[in-house]
Amino acid sequence: GAVVSQHPSWVICKSGTSVKIECRSLDFQATTMFWYRQFPKQSLMLMATSNEGSKATYEQGVEKDKFLINHASLTLSTLTVTSAHPEDSSFYICSQPGGGSTEAFFGQGTRLTVV
Amino acid sequence: AQSVTQPDIHITVSEGASLELRCNYSYGATPYLFWYVQSPGQGLQLLLKYFSGDTLVQGIKGFEAEFKRSQSSFNLRKPSVHWSDAAEYFCAVGTTGNQFYFGTGTSLTVIP
Lengths: 115, 112
Prior knowledge:
heterodimer; A: mainly beta; 4-stranded antiparallel sheet; 11 strands; globular; B: mainly beta; 6-stranded mixed sheet; 53% strand
């Protein structure tokens, strides 16, 4: 299956600062990437779908101005958490669709802690 | 609407004992079903998946799962648990758009 590399694996930042998370597809081109968020003791919830060369699609309730998604190339999607607050502390994980089989390949995830 | 329910938040089993993790789903079409495992601080690793065909699917690490349409279930099983199986397990429904809907997860503790 595809290899998806996500960086950083963990980050601590101060409240009010911005944090960028990268998701790279190492062996397949990805026109679409998905971003999920997992709060402690909860499941992963889809935040948004990034589309190469066009605007991302956000799920209901997700602030697009706060969670900036850029999919500038077929191998890289980035999620920037702007003006981070402690309530943004979460586990963020990206995924790349698999071939045509409705499968997905997940990155390692990023643990964000905002202090 | 799509949803996935994992009724057991936490399960503790003894090493060598059998394991069954429950998963029920709600989906309007033919479901694509997955089980993932997440070790602490790690990403998701695919254990197994069901798309069609044989309703009993085999996965990695000795896991298997059975799709029961009549019960809308896709329970995960392992005949003999190893200490290294301690982790968080997620059941998920995948859509034709490659989006996933996850259950809330079951945390597995294995005691010696």
